[in-house]
Specification:
The complex is a heterodimer of chains A (382) and B (193). Chain A contains eleven helices and 17 strands. With 382 residues, chain A is an alpha/beta fold. Chain A folds into two domains: 213 residues, Quinone Oxidoreductase, Chain A, domain 1, CATH 3.90.180; 160 residues, 3-Layer(aba) Sandwich (Rossmann fold). Chain B has a domain of 79 residues. The chains are: A alpha/beta (382), B mainly alpha (193).
Chain lengths: 382, 193
C-alpha cells in the first residue's frame, strides 16, 4: 500500500508499505478514504516529539471503510463506513471506565502520561497512522463509530480530532453566561472553540492570531471579534485593554508547542529543541486571563519541559484545565450541533492534496502558505 | 459616585454591558444551547459511561513478537500496543536503554530518546545513499513556487524565524560535510607522511 513516511525532521514522503494485519482479536483494518493533517502533526514533522522513528506513518484524523475485522469484533462489519477517534482506547481500564478515553492505560506501553494515538510517535504507543491507504484500528468495538448518513465526509474527518478538540476546549473553560472568552489561535481547533464558546453562553468571544485569512475565518465562521497580535507591541496589554483591564474570564489555548509570537521561544523550542516547544501561547493565556479565571489548554505539548510562567498562574489564582480530548465522549452532543448547523467544521477546509503529494501538503501547512487553514489528504485507493 | 472612566477591574461590578440573550441569539446561531452544564458531554465529571463497547474486564493480550520496550512506570506490557518500527541498530539500543533505565519522570529518559531519534535519522540517511532513492534535505519545498511562498509570507512576523528553517535543515549536513572534509584531509596528510 502507499503510505506517508517520516524520514527525519522536515522530510516526509510516500513509500510502499505492507498492508496492516489483524494483530489482536478486537482489531479492524480500515481502508482510509479521507485523512487530514493536524497542527499537532507538525510537532512530529519538525522533530519535536521524542521517539519519532524513521519510517513512521503519521495521521490521527481519518475516516474509511472496514476491510477486515478480528475474531472478537461484534459492533462493526466489513464494508461499514467509519470515523475513528484519534484516541486508541480499551473502554475498560480505570480511566476509560470514568470517561477519560484519552488517558487509557491499556494501549500505550511506552508511556503512562499519555494514552494511545494513531500515527503519533512511539511516545503514544507506536501505532502507524491514517495518512495511508490502510490502517490498523485496535479495539474496533470501542473506538470507531459508523458515519451517519446525513454527515459529510469533511465533517466526519474533522470530528475525529480538530472539531472535537475545539468543542472540548470550550467545555474545559467551564464558561458561564456572559463570560468574555479569548481564544488563542484561529486554526482549526481555535475556530471550533470559538463557535462552541457561544453555544455555552459566552457574552464575548475574541480570537487572537496574526494571519489575516484565519482572522477573517474567525469573523465569518465563528462570529468572533479578532485581535491581530502583529498589530500590537504587546498583545497581553491589548487583551487587558479590551477587557476593561480585568483580563478574560476564560482563555482557551488552541495553539500548542509551535506557537509564533516570540522569537526567543521559537528559537529555543521548535528550532534548537532546547525546550519542548514554544510556550508563547500558554504564557499569553496565563497573563491574559483575569485573576480567578480559567485557562483551558487544548494545544498539544510534548513531554520535554517548557519555559512556562507558572508563578503568574499561581499568583493569579487561575484554574488550569487541560487534556487530550476524549473524542468519542464528545460525539453524541456534537453530532446534534453539526446536524443543526451550530457547528460547521467543514467550513475550515481550504486545501485537498492527493496522498502522493504529502510532502507538498506538509510544507504548505507548516509554512502556512496559500492561506492554508486545514489540508485534507485523499489516499489513492479512496 | 465613582468616576465612570475607572475600568471594571478597579470597582466591584463589571462596567461593560453584556449583550442580552435575545441580542446574542439573534446574532449567533445556536447561542446558549449548551448553557446548562447538564447539556455538555460527560456532566457530571468522571461519570461511568453507560456502554463503551468493551465486552471484557481486561482485554485479551496481543502476542509479543519481540521484547517490546515499555515504560518502567507500567506494571507490565500493556495488552495492546503498536508494532510499527521495532528498535534497530545503535538508535534502537539507545532507545531500549532509555526505556529500561529511566522513568518518564526523568529528563534523561526523554533526552536519550531524542538522541535516539537523531541517530535513527543519521543511520537511515547513510543507508539511503546506498539505495535507489536517497534522502533529500527537505521535501515539499517546490510549493514555495507553486503556492506563493513569498506572497503568503508578506508582512508576517513569523517569516523571521522561517529564515532559520534552511539552517536547521541544512546545518547537520554542512557539519557532516565539513567534518568529512577535515577527516579526509588529515588522512591524506597522514598517508603522505
Amino acid at each position: 500500500m502507499r503510505a506517508m513516511v517520516y524520514r527525519g525532521p522536515y522530510k516526509v514522503r510516500v513509500e510502499e508499505k505492507p498492508v496492516p494485519v489483524i494483530e489482536h482479536p478486537n482489531d479492524a483494518v480500515v481502508r482510509v478514504t479521507l485523512a487530514a493533517i493536524c497542527g499537532s502533526d507538525l510537532h512530529l514533522y519538525h522533530g519535536m516529539m521524542p521517539d519519532t522513528r524513521i519510517g513512521h506513518t503519521f495521521g490521527h484524523e481519518f475516516i474509511g471503510v472496514v476491510e477486515q475485522v478480528g475474531s472478537s469484533v461484534q459492533n462493526l462489519r466489513i464494508g461499514d463506513r467509519v470515523m475513528v477517534p484519534f484516541n486508541i482506547f480499551c473502554g475498560s481500564c480505570w480511566f476509560c471506565a470514568r470517561g477519560l478515553y484519552s488517558n487509557c492505560h491499556n494501549v500505550n506501553p511506552n508511556a503512562t502520561a499519555v494514552g494511545g494515538i494513531y500515527g503519533y510517535s512511539h511516545t503514544t504507543g507506536g501505532y502507524d497512522g491514517g495518512q495511508s491507504e490502510y490502517v490498523r484500528v485496535p479495539f474496533a468495538d470501542v473506538g470507531p463509530a459508523k458515519i451517519p448518513d446525513w454527515m459529510s465526509d469533511e465533517d466526519a474527518v474533522l470530528l475525529t480530532d480538530a472539531a472535537a478538540t475545539g468543542y472540548f476546549g470550550a467545555q474545559l473553560g467551564e464558561i458561564a453566561e456572559g463570560d468574555t472568552v479569548v481564544v488563542l489561535g484561529a486554526g482549526p481547533v481555535g475556530l471550533v472553540a470559538a463557535q462552541s464558546s457561544w453555544l455555552m453562553g459566552a457574552g464575548r468571544v475574541i480570537v487572537v492570531d496574526h494571519l489575516p485569512e484565519r482572522l477573517e475565518k474567525a469573523r465569518t465562521m465563528a462570529y468572533a471579534e479578532t485581535l491581530d497580535y502583529d498589530e500590537h507591541d504587546d498583545v497581553v496589554v491589548e487583551m487587558k485593554k479590551q477587557t476593561d483591564y480585568l483580563g478574560a474570564d476564560v482563555v482557551i489555548e488552541a495553539v500548542g508547542a509551535e506557537a509564533d509570537g516570540n522569537f526567543l521561544q521559537q528559537l529555543t523550542g521548535p528550532k534548537l529543541k532546547l525546550q519542548g516547544g514554544s510556550a508563547t501561547a500558554l504564557n499569553w493565556a496565563i497573563d491574559g486571563a483575569r485573576k480567578g479565571g480559567t485557562v483551558s489548554v487544548v494545544g498539544a505539548y510534548g513531554p520535554i519541559p517548557n519555559a512556562v510562567k507558572f508563578g503568574d498562574a499561581m499568583n493569579k489564582g487561575l484554574t488550569l484545565r487541560m487534556n487530550q480530548t476524549p473524542v468519542k465522549r464528545q460525539w453524541p452532543r456534537m453530532f446534534e450541533h453539526v446536524r443543526n448547523g451550530h457547528l460547521t467544521p467543514r467550513d475550515m477546509v481550504t486545501h485537498r492534496f492527493p496522498l502522493e503529494e504529502i510532502a507538498e501538503a506538509y510544507h504548505v501547512f507548516s509554512s502556512k502558505l496559500d492561506g492554508c487553514i486545514k489540508p485534507l489528504i485523499v489516499p489513492s485507493a479512496a | 459616585m465613582t468616576d465612570p472612566g475607572v475600568p471594571s477591574a478597579y470597582v466591584r461590578d463589571k462596567r461593560t454591558p453584556t449583550p442580552s440573550r435575545e441580542e446574542l441569539r439573534a446574532r449567533i446561531p445556536g447561542w446558549g444551547v449548551d448553557l446548562d452544564p447538564a447539556d455538555r458531554p460527560a456532566h457530571p465529571r468522571l461519570q461511568y459511561p453507560a456502554d463503551t463497547g468493551a465486552h471484557w474486564d481486561f482485554p485479551e493480550r496481543q502476542p509479543e513478537k519481540w521484547p517490546r520496550e515499555r515504560s518502567v512506570e507500567h506494571a507490565f506490557l500493556t495488552p495492546v500496543f503498536g508494532t510499527a518500527q521495532p528498535p534497530k541498530g545503535l538508535s534502537g539500543a539507545v532507545r531500549k536503554y532509555a526505556y529500561a533505565r529511566f522513568s518518564e519522570g526523568r529528563l534523561a529518559h526523554w533526552m536519550l530518546l531524542v538522541v535516539g531519534d537523531r541517530l535513527d535519522a543519521a543511520e537511515h540517511r547513510l543507508r539511503s545513499f546506498a539505495s535507489t532513492r536517497p534522502d533529500v534535505p527537505a521535501t515539499g519545498v517546490r510549493t514555495e513556487f507553486t503556492h506563493g511562498g513569498l506572497r503568503s509570507r508578506r508582512g508576517r512576523s513569523d517569516a523571521r524565524h522561517h529564515l532559520l528553517d534552511p539552517v536547521v535543515v541544512a546545518g547537520p549536513w554542512l557539519a557532516a560535510a565539513g567534518g568529512a572534509a577535515v577527516g579526509v584531509r588529515r588522512l591524506v596528510r597522514a598517508v603522505r607522511g
